Amino acid sequence: MQVPSSTTRYVLAFALPLLATGCGSGGPTRYEVTGTVTYQGENVPTGTITFTPASGEGGAIGIADITNGEFETQSGKGVPAGKYVALVRGYGEPGAAEPGEGLEPPKYGPKLFDEVSIPIDLPAENSTHTFELPLGD
Predict the structure, then answer these.
(1) Where are the domains of the chain?
(2) Which pTM does this prediction carry?
């Protein structure tokens, strides 16, 4: 019988507890959040929404890309129920890549508005929300 090397034992000592708990199997239940984002009555071409816990104590954060005015948190990587602040960033249509080899086109175009913070209470179920910007007074 061959005895594992010290490096193998070191790796196993840290890897086994992670495997025993599962990859992401713990923690609160996450729910899918979908919806639309408009700016001055038009769909926001590109952008992001970050759902940050309102308590400021940390916790699970949800992120969604905005594409053609629509967003959704990735399946299985949604957001736990609770009070959040939705940080909305909106951009215009992305332009073409600059001339050159191996360049990809940019993901976002020019900024449409400064980041907007919107308080939101997310339920313990999948939900759909509409963000119309600018917000009313």
Answers:
(1) 28-96+103-133
(2) 0.72
Q: Which fold has domain 28-96+103-133?
A: Immunoglobulin-like (2.60.40)
Which residues are 121's β-sheet partners?
Answer: 83
One-letter amino acid at 90 equals: G
108 touches 90 (CB < 8 A): no
Does residue 72 contact residue 33 with C-beta atoms inside 8 Å? yes
Q: Which tokens in the block code for residue 37?
A: 């984002």
Question: Do the beta carbons of residue 113 and residue 39 sit within 8 Å?
Answer: yes
Mean pLDDT computed over 95-117: 77
C-alpha angle 52/88/64, rounded to 5°?
70
List the structure tokens of 25: 């199997």
Where do the DSSP E strands lie in 18-81?
33-39, 42-43, 46-53, 62-67, 70-72
Express each pLDDT in 54-101 by its tens digit.
Answer: 977 667 899 999 999 999 997 668 999 999 999 999 999 887 656 665
Least-confidence region, from 7-11, 23-27, 81-85 = 7-11
